[in-house]
Amino acid sequence: MKAALSGPSFPYKPCWKLLSEMSKSGKAQRKLKVEGKELSSLPEELFNFEDTQILKMSPERESCLSYQMGFVPKEIGHLMNLTALYIDSNNLQEIPPEVGMLKNLKRLVLSNNALSILPLELGMLQNLQSIHLANNNFTIFPSVICHCPNLTFLDISDNKIEIIPPTIEHLKNLETLLLLFNRISKLPKGLCSLTKLRCLWLGNNNIRELPDSFGNLALLDWGDNYCSFDLDGNPLNKPPIEVCMGGPQRIKAYFSSYHNNACYNVDFRVIS
């Protein structure tokens, strides 16, 4: 349910839409949507609406892609009641440190930009639950994300990332992790401690083997639910892809057998 808001404090702008939107809990949320020419030159008064909870500054139609933001003003930090910020499909190369002031932020959508780094201050967003970073220019995984302990959703697919840092193990509440279409060749053991993962997409990388404890991710099930676990497009040989299709239990059994055989071979060589 949406209803337009009006009043003397809200100047009329044809490309601004200030709405009241009902949340899942039934409470009204103030939502501000900016589109069209306003995106290419954001007016300062936009950041005076400090009670805004949802802010959308994304071109929604292909015809609007000629109007994109080149930067996010530092005044974004004034909107401290924001719970959701959508600034995807723009031409952003960086995000201002002031985003760290948005302590109530739960959802941050930055997909389809030109980002290669995130500010350290983003790690101050302790209430952040969902971050979307797909189709940017990341070559290094932004480790600052690992300081957001309540994160349940992370999409950093379609970048140029080669290494996932061990600190990803700090994201204990993560349920969805999308890493497809990168250049990842190895997964850290810490990934296997994220036992709340229900969806893990690793397709189209350079992964040749999985960590020994990968079978600990018991909520993943590629055999019955293809959307849960994706490894297509990798040169995987340990374990073979047909083993992975059997799900976590098959993977765990494979590594158990692999190590038992390895120990036997070592003992045999020593005895001989």
Tell me what the structure shows:
This protein is an alpha/beta fold and 272 residues long. The chain has one domain (73-271): Alpha-Beta Horseshoe (Leucine-rich repeat, LRR (right-handed beta-alpha superhelix)), CATH 3.80.10.10. The chain has two helices and eleven strands. It has helices spanning 241-244, 248-271; strands at 2-4, 16-22, 28-34, 54-56, 84-86, 107-109, 130-132, 153-155, 176-178, 199-201, 229-230. It has an eleven-stranded mixed beta sheet, with no helix packed on it. Strand 2 (16-22) and strand 3 (28-34) form a beta hairpin. 30% of the residues are buried.
Uncertain runs:
1-12, 263-272
The coarse overall form would be: elongated
Could you describe the largest sheet, including whether it forms a barrel? 11 strands, mixed
Number of helices: 2
- The end-to-end span amounts to 77 Å
Total strands: the figure is: 11
Domain count, please report it: 1
Oligomeric category: single chain
CATH architecture: Alpha-Beta Horseshoe
Computed structural class: alpha/beta
CATH superfamily: Ribonuclease Inhibitor
